[in-house]
Design brief:
368 residues, alpha/beta, Rossmann fold, 11 helices, elongated
Length: 368
């Protein structure tokens, strides 16, 4: 969707949705400062779209004027000054029914109407696959949107890298590296569970960098006997400890991923695997579930700079009339790609990925 030359931008809005990721605040700062440079006003929407539907969110105004002062000194901060939510889909918001049960209601038309009432000319939606699907659906309803790709899982296919991914890899790599000494001292098998529901980017990158002996990703179904054989092989060679890195969505060749509860949240694969490894090898196994620590803390320099580039590029897209798009890193350059191309299919680790091939050459087991 292109603006006509007569279209004048006066006010834009920005929100953050889905799981948090290191670099969100850097994007907010870049969008704000670049938009102010154009002479535009910037509104921040709290907790996804909730700030448009409620006057107050968590005791704070639902909308906040983003000034240069408001975004000062936030580039290095983790989290998001606007807050976020994984349950803020305006096409299916959870509401309590009169009978006390929970249901969903579509409030997307209210969102579009509120944008018109507030005179917002474009939304910069910062999010992952779920959040950008929502943004794309709102764009189809007539809301001008620019997407910014955020997810530590690195699973958006239209961009080479999403911001937050490299920081998550650094956190996981550091944790894996710190386990080597204790694993060797106690001659244990240490199983590190990292995030990655449908893709194994974090597990592959951090596992290789951290010197893991076994790396398990959703793209390659694993066999427990192959994992046990790797542990026994190392034991016989005098390497009486092993490090296993497993993505939370990894699955056995003859089964499905492990779920933590009825909501479908992934978890439990490391604990279940530890029991089986002990049974098959006779070695003591311990687990470490990194969980949300991968999302927290300061972004590394790479993610800060990528976030700033994405935010500035989003403003350029608005200025140039390239709406209904997502900014993406492709071959070192930031480009605008259609939102529908960005959210149509997740990016999985290809089975011929160079890092995966290198791992096999170096003796890493992928459980197959």
């Amino acid at each position: 969707m292109q603006n006509g030359p007569e279209r004048r931008i006066r006010r834009i809005a920005v929100n953050t949705g889905g799981g948090d990721a290191p670099g969100l605040n850097a994007v907010i700062r870049a969008v704000t400062l670049a938009a102010l440079h154009e002479g535009w006003e910037v509104l921040g929407i709290r907790r996804g779209y909730m700030g448009l539907l409620e006057a107050e969110v968590d005791g704070e105004p639902g909308l906040v004027n983003l000034t240069a002062h408001a975004v000062r000194g936030i580039t290095h901060l983790g989290g998001t000054i606007l807050g976020t939510t994984t349950r803020g889909n305006p096409f299916g918001l959870e509401v309590r029914q009169p009978d006390g049960t929970w249901g969903t209601v579509d409030r997307s038309d209210e969102i579009v109407q509120r944008f018109r009432e507030l005179g917002i000319d474009c939304l910069v939606a910062i999010g992952g696959d779920g959040s950008l699907n929502i943004a794309h659906a709102l764009h189809r309803k007539g809301l001008p949107v620019i997407g910014v790709p955020k997810t530590i899982d690195n699973d958006l296919r239209a961009t080479d890298v999403t911001f937050g991914f490299q920081t998550a890899v650094e956190v996981a790599t550091d944790a894996i590296g710190r386990l080597h000494s204790t694993a060797e001292a106690h001659q244990r098998v240490m199983i590190v569970q990292v995030m990655g529901r449908h893709t194994g980017w974090i597990a592959l990158d951090s596992g290789m960098a951290g010197g893991a002996d076994v790396i398990l990703i959703p793209e390659i179904p694993y066999r427990l006997d192959r994992i046990a054989a790797k542990v026994v092989e190392r034991d016989r060679a005098g390497r009486r400890f092993s490090i296993i890195v497993v993505a939370e969505g990894a699955r056995p060749a003859d089964g499905e991923p492990s779920y933590a509860d009825a909501t479908g949240r992934y978890g439990g694969v490391a604990d279940a695997m530890a029991d089986e490894i002990e049974r098959l090898t006779g070695k003591e196994a311990r687990t470490l579930v990194l969980g949300h620590i991968q999302r927290g803390g300061e972004p590394i320099a790479y993610d800060r700079n990528l976030s700033l580039r994405f935010g500035a590029a989003a403003v350029r897209c608005i200025r140039d009339g390239s709406l209904g798009t997502m900014v993406a890193l492709q071959g070192g350059a930031i480009r605008a790609v259609p939102l529908e191309d960005a959210v149509g299919e997740i990016k999985r680790v290809p089975l011929d990925a160079d890092l995966l091939t290198a791992g096999r050459q170096l003796g890493v087991s992928f459980g197959d």
